[in-house]
Design a protein that fits this description.
Chains A, B, C, D: It is found in: Cytoplasm. Chains A, B, C, D: Belongs to the argininosuccinate synthase family. Type 1 subfamily. Chains A, B, C, D: Its EC number is 6.3.4.5. Chains A, B, C, D: Homotetramer. The structure is a homotetramer of 409-residue chains. Chain A is of the alpha/beta class. Chain A folds into 3 domains: 144 residues, HUPs (Rossmann fold); 139 residues, Alpha-Beta Complex (Argininosuccinate synthetase, chain A, domain 2); 39 residues. Helices cover 42% and strands 19% of the residues of chain A. In chain A, the strands form 3 sheets. In chain A, strands 3-2-1-4-5 form a 5-stranded parallel sheet, with helices on both faces. The relative contact order of chain A is 0.12. Chains in contact: A-B, A-C, A-D, B-C, B-D, C-D. Chains C and D meet through helix 5, strand 11, strand 12, helix 9 and helix 10 of C and helix 5, strand 11, strand 12, helix 10 and helix 11 of D.
């Protein structure tokens, strides 16, 4: 296997691990490495990645660096939020949703530079390897995939550092020791897992959190904001129109400052084991509540319940890595069909970790005060209709009860 | 219709409205009224209801007063929480779950006293009339049902008060004016709707909340608690074994003190319109998180995802009033089947409106640190298995992609 | 109520019942009646309906007669068959699917002629009243609906005939006696119910069947046909391109001749009771098998299984009358999304009531002989991948089994 | 890997392939082989398997032969038929349902004889390997699994025969040449796939069918039978009480004689590719119709629709091999809960490939002739109830339509 790769596109962060992978690919496969580094809003500068790639011998024309934040939010995050997706009832899928985009970019670059393989830095026990590779294959069925963590023998931190040193890969001082946990970050969230978090009975230490201040540290006074929506997507904060990425950035700031979006979760991985993760999704947590709020007055019940029934399946598909699958796209078509009038404004109260919807309004509101009021009105609601409605809904239950009575059980 | 009722069992709170109903039944139907007053944990004394019933001419042997709190929590609330039920993603179903129990008691009393009818005080626009009546019919198919709010002409507050006065029904001073909103309460929750809440764009005023203090008013220091579970039901708080009702009472105190469990929601009623409600479910909000927490380490993924997929349907059935239906009972059988090993302890942090699971442990834990660890281990996980797993999961996607490539779209 | 209708659009067949309704509307409501008679392929001439309407005093410009067969098949039948819809596992929904179209036409005519009401001839115990009226309201929310069978006192055949005679409504000789069962027909199917069919333990007599010959009477030799599909819809039979209605007509002939499409069913009505019906859907039965056949080689598994999971819900919506609802439209969007490559040819064997798919081919086939063959091949399938696939799928089950072993149950 | 197996329990048919496997296990792993041969109703005698095993050097006490037909039908086939399970709308799962039982027996024997491994003869491209191995692991998490077809190099018929000859394995004359297709059989069905069936455009030749005569060859006169049910399971044919296996045997005869139960299908395997199979399920095809027939009068609509909604998922689990999984067991609990009153008799007409339900009766029937009749009756159905029922069901659709009108789209 090691012999027939000519050129590989590596998802490259510029960090120690992917630098080791880069060098390992060169030495093991004897192939040319092309790097792809994306700005997904992870909060790191990208130019150091370029320098490091150059240093490791990558040709300038083979170093691809791209700011994909707008594409990430508009084509991945927002469609997912139209579904109100939560994996296992709680997780906002911040890592899952970034993988398909990175994969897609790698495949595009592979076509451009004529590469015959792609590689990623995900480990052999996690979900990310699945998400990367299902995406690769769905987009380029004959691509070769290299997953170094499943292949090499650098199975301990020590070996990894030795390899780095022996190949002149610079090691930042703070990378010498082992990190106390493993991290992923993008504009939607930060996740932490492993090491100190591996005992699910122990509370996550405060230093694990990187993206939010604690509720305790948040201001003692609530912040009120208004999020505007058009056709299911957020378009403004406090009246200011913002691009998708700018909007999520703004919600992240608001969430962070108010201690919003922390989640400590034991979840079920697609590869079959349970793992414990700590997630911070400050803006996303606000966005989910806001989206549910605007839907609450603009979506019909039939549409809303159908969406709710299918949400866990949609979330599972995203989590498992089936973004580029017909079934995810079919569900998306169903969801998007429902969002045409999900337009309006939601007012939210942010306070020390809490996000509360406190007001909603829409030119397309289906809420009808005349209909619901306790006051007698001129509207099309006849109390006697309720009697018939109940009677026919009860008919089958009465038939059942008559059987029970008849047979005496 | 008004002529053929001999004896009716009324769900009687002792308040003004059901007292008016009581008298209206006597005068309109000329029938004997039997009252049923339940202690569901609504926080009111019941003896005044007895006195008032006597005053209104009900025979002592026809006044039924019962403390049903334990039955309510163990037979209704807990089974529902095994499902992690949330209506429309957010509502903990506090009103919905109490109706079937009241209905069941009324039917039992009707059989005991030989009544041919039952009556309730729910209005003609709400969900509760449906919940009461579906339950009545499911349990006693030929029972006659009287829903005064759908029949009478006391269609304004003024008319109601006039009727009360003309029939010597005592009116508490604070009932003279109209209440600023309508309320329901039991051990699980309090709900408020109508009047000042009818504009969904306006924030609910603080005085609406009756069951919880605000997050702002809650202590500045977090409270940590441990909830113990056995087979899916909570059995202890901080190591102290408690009966179901006592446990929920304790969680309510903890929730109340920490500003937990408020919800401001626009929801879709079964009768077809949207309404806005404010809910307070302090203990239930803690219980849901705790139950999800203990499930996270004790439930298999297949079981958990099946439960998540069916939860919205279960919640819809409860909300719509189909508690006593074959389909709810079938879903319950499925859910209960999953709870055998949902046993253990969950540690939670309560802080100013937030409930966070911070630790979980169980003798039946499926979490396997050896399996998930980044460290190399002796456990049954071969990284190469992941490659095959991904390859076969990708096979159909690659076949699809090959088709796309073949036809050039 | 009877006084405020000015002009009503009646779904008029020209038969005795709707003629009585026509006259009853004129006399009871004192309103102008506009008739709409549709050719849905029921196999009756329409001109007699025009003459009868004129005879009953309808103005020529208020008599609407339209051949809607093409619209019926292309806009209603075909979209439904894309879903492979079967109600309660067996029923092809032949009556259900025609009602929304008739309703839509009535509403369009009501707008054209300025009518304030619509009326239909469905009884008060059936599903059709629901289907008509939900469609009316969904399309024209303030329309008034008259359902004579729920209002009048013509509650026996005798009274109906008396009314007809007293109003000079011609009664065909064979309508004098009571029909032995009740019938509905259109291009998709014929249904029979009531009377001799009301005992579900008794076999339906042969004379109930009107649309098909019996399997016994069908030819002793099989007929082979080929149905061509494009994007999920049938477009040709035996290589001959046909319009939707012409194609269904052709399949009906083929089905009829071969004794195909009979169904004797006890089903659950939306209004709450069980009923027994006999259905004949000759062409539709062939079409369903053919569509499943072409999907079997062109649809991906993920798409196919998602469709299968949602089919019962789609069928229920159609049966209940929610064609014009957001949730049906959302499901349709999901289904249609899957049909882009459902193109190709299916060969079927028709023989004495049997329809068997015996061959399928498509330029977009996903069937890959190289992949599936037992022979060793050069294709991208490594047997060792299966080992990893199984291992990771088994991981959670092994974890469970280890728990069972550990706790000794 | 080849070195650490001491004793392996092989699912042994006595045929050429598993005899080769037996010998291969002995020679490759140097381990002791224990054989398990089950009578699942495949229609072959078992004693020759014993002789052959002895001949191949298996100790008599290590040869396990068991008639598991009753267990197969009562514990696997019948529970599955309670679900009306059809994979991909058509396949009765005849192969899938047998694998868990064989696996369970192998594990039980492994415990008895102290074996550390199990082995099966399924190939590396099929579903059966998954079904066997998921079952093994679910029952005995640390068992070692040997799948010779994925490991050895006997990758052609020629090599297999050479191996057999060189190891003195007797080869039946008709096994010399390659079989024109691959076969599996048990009391529920026979399946054929591969070779002449690999082109899905070609009709399956008549000689593929082994278990049924063709509809053409079946009698020209219909056969009527009555199947009795108790709590969801068939218990009698034509009034004669039969054990589960005897009953299925009887239905198989009836089906076979009447040309019933053939299916030609392209299906989606769990391992990711499409395959074409020909199935014969004569008795099962009758049983499914009969079960649906008895359910049609004894199951409430809510129960029936919930079952229908979940059926595809249940069928998928069985097909994929997850019989011993919590989610299949949870679904089973739900299904079984519904079957308490699925008792009564169904009359069926069998004729040249057709199975028609022509009558159903039950002491627990929910069919109510008084309720459904067109005749006016004294029953609890008020036509005016239908008006209210429709009005409230329409309310949300009217609200939607009013929005549409308001915004002028």
């Amino acid at each position: 296997m090691a012999h027939d790769i000519k050129r590989v596109v590596l998802a490259y962060s510029g960090g120690l691990d992917t630098s080791v992978i880069l060098k390992w690919l060169q030495t093991t496969y004897g192939c040319e490495v092309v790097t792809f580094t994306a700005d997904l809003g992870q909060g790191e500068e990208l130019e150091p990645a370029r320098k490091k790639a150059e240093l490791l011998g990558i040709k300038p024309e083979h170093i691809f660096i791209e700011d994909v934040r707008e594409e990430f939010v508009s084509e991945y995050v927002f469609p997912m939020f139209r579904a109100n997706a939560l994996y296992e009832g709680l997780y906002l899928l911040g890592t899952s949703i970034a993988r398909p985009l990175i994969s897609k970019k790698q495949i595009e670059i592979a076509r451009k530079v004529g590469a015959d393989a792609v590689a990623h830095g995900a480990t052999g026990k996690g979900n990310d390897q699945v998400r990367f590779e299902l995406s690769y294959y769905a987009l380029e069925p004959e691509i070769k995939v290299i997953a170094p963590w499943r292949e090499w023998d650098l199975t301990s931190r020590t070996k990894l550092l030795e390899f780095a040193e022996s190949h002149q890969i610079p090691i930042a001082r703070d990378k010498r020791g082992e990190a106390p946990f493993s991290v992923d970050a993008n504009l939607l969230h930060s996740s932490s897992e492993g090491k100190v978090l591996e005992n699910p009975a122990e509370e996550a230490p405060e230093y694990v959190y990187q993206r939010t201040i604690s509720p305790e540290a948040a201001p003692d006074k609530a912040t009120y904001i208004t999020v505007g929506f058009e056709k299911g997507d957020a378009v403004s904060v406090d009246g200011l129109a913002l691009s998708p990425a700018a909007l999520l950035t703004r919600l992240n700031e608001l969430g962070k400052e108010n201690g919003i979006g922390r989640l400590d979760l034991v979840e079920n991985r697609f590869v079959g084991m349970k793992s414990r993760g700590v997630y911070e999704t400050p803006g996303g947590t606000i966005l989910l509540q806001a989206h549910r709020g605007i839907e609450s007055i603009t979506l019909d019940r039939g549409a809303a319940h159908l969406k709710d029934d299918l949400m866990p399946r949609y979330a599972e598909l995203v989590y498992y890595g089936f973004w580029f699958s017909p079934e995810r796209e079919m569900l998306q078509a169903l969801i998007d069909k429902s969002q045409e009038f999900v337009t309006g404004e939601v007012r939210l109260k942010l306070y020390k970790g809490n996000v509360e919807v406190v007001g909603r309004s829409s030119p397309y509101s289906l809420y009808n005060q005349d209909l619901v009021t306790f006051e007698e009105g001129a509207v099309a609601y006849d109390h006697r209709d309720a009697a018939g409605f109940i009677k026919l809904n009860a008919l089958r239950l009465r038939t059942l009860a008559n059987r029970t009575r008849r047979i005496g059980v």
